[in-house]
Amino acid sequence: MEKLLDKNKKFFNKIARYYDNKIFLKYLTNSQNKMLDFIKIKENSKILDAGCGTGNLLHLLEKQNKKYNLSGIDISEEMLKIAKKKLINVKLKLQSTENIYFKESFDYVFSTEAFHHYSDYNLIMENFNKILKKDGKLIVLDFDFGFLLNKIFHSIEPGNSKMHSPEEFKRLFKQYRFKNVMQKRINLFLLLTIGKK
Ligand SMILES: C[S@@+](CC[C@H](N)C(=O)[O-])C[C@H]1O[C@@H](n2cnc3c(N)ncnc32)[C@H](O)[C@@H]1O
Questions:
Q1: What domain range is 112 assigned to?
Q2: What is the pLDDT of residue 68?
Q3: Is 83 among the domain residues?
Q4: Which of 58, 90, 125, 151 would you label with 41, given CA atoms 20 to 30 Å apart?
Q5: Quick one: which of 195, 184, 196, 194 has its CA closest to 34?
Q6: Does some domain include residue 153?
Q7: What residues are in contact with ligand 1 under a 6 Å CB criterion?
Q8: Of all atoms in ligand 1, which is nearest to the CA of residue 141?
Q9: Residue 146 burial (CB < 10 Å; 0-12/13-18/19+)?
Q10: Closest residue (by CA) to atom 13 of ligand 1?
Q11: Which residues, in sequence order, are bridge partners of residue 29?
Q12: Is 99 within the bounds of a domain?
């Protein structure tokens, strides 16, 4: 059977050129701006966007002009190609969250709208913990439509591994030793979970 990771890579390579369509981009920008307003990142921070896709979050961060050190990883070459065009000073790597390798560690690791695509999310939580500095923050923004719609979305979206409920996210963060775990609904369908290493 085809591995979920390969399925996701194929799927996102195929849809990359349609990803930044006007309607979705507006929704994404609105949600990510709300998330950034809430988090208030410190200047000079080292930030990784894991599953950065076409680089929209990194673009918003770059526009803040706050001397951030920005990196992004993704498994889709085609999504990264689009990201490269809109970013100036960001290190982008073709790399999976299952296999993160960085010499440096980060103040913030983001995963936006990507967590439900991760097959081995236990390994990934361990990896996120490893690459964060002490007191660094893991920030996961992901869809939550409620129990029934989550089930339907899981069954129809290509490459969807698992929809985590708010309680499951909280448990997972605690299981991987994150402290001060808190959650906030960014809009009707997007849930933010934050934890400190
Ligand atoms: C729905 S897109 C979200 C992209 C971006 N974070 C955003 O908010 O627009 C999910 C992204 O996760 C990437 N992805 C899926 N599984 C991954 C993995 N295991 N490691 C790294 N990236 C992954 C996909 O290639 C895709 O670009």
A1: 4-16+44-196
A2: 97
A3: yes
A4: 125
A5: 184
A6: yes
A7: 5, 8, 12, 28, 51-53, 56-57, 73-76, 79, 96-98, 112-114, 117-118
A8: 8
A9: exposed
A10: 51
A11: none
A12: yes
Rounded-to-10 torsion of CA 181, 117, 155, 32: 60
Q: Is residue 34 part of a domain?
A: no
Tell me how far apart the alpha carbons of residues 104 and 106 are, in angstroms, rounded to a whole number: 7
Nearest residue (CA) to ligand 1, atom 9: 53
How far apart are the C-alpha atoms of 87 and 9, rounded to whole Å?
Answer: 21
Distance CA 157, CA 166 (A): 20
What is the block-wise mean pLDDT of the chain (197 residues), using blocks of 10 residues? 87 96 95 96 96 98 94 98 97 96 96 95 96 98 95 94 96 97 96 98
Domains of the chain: total: 1
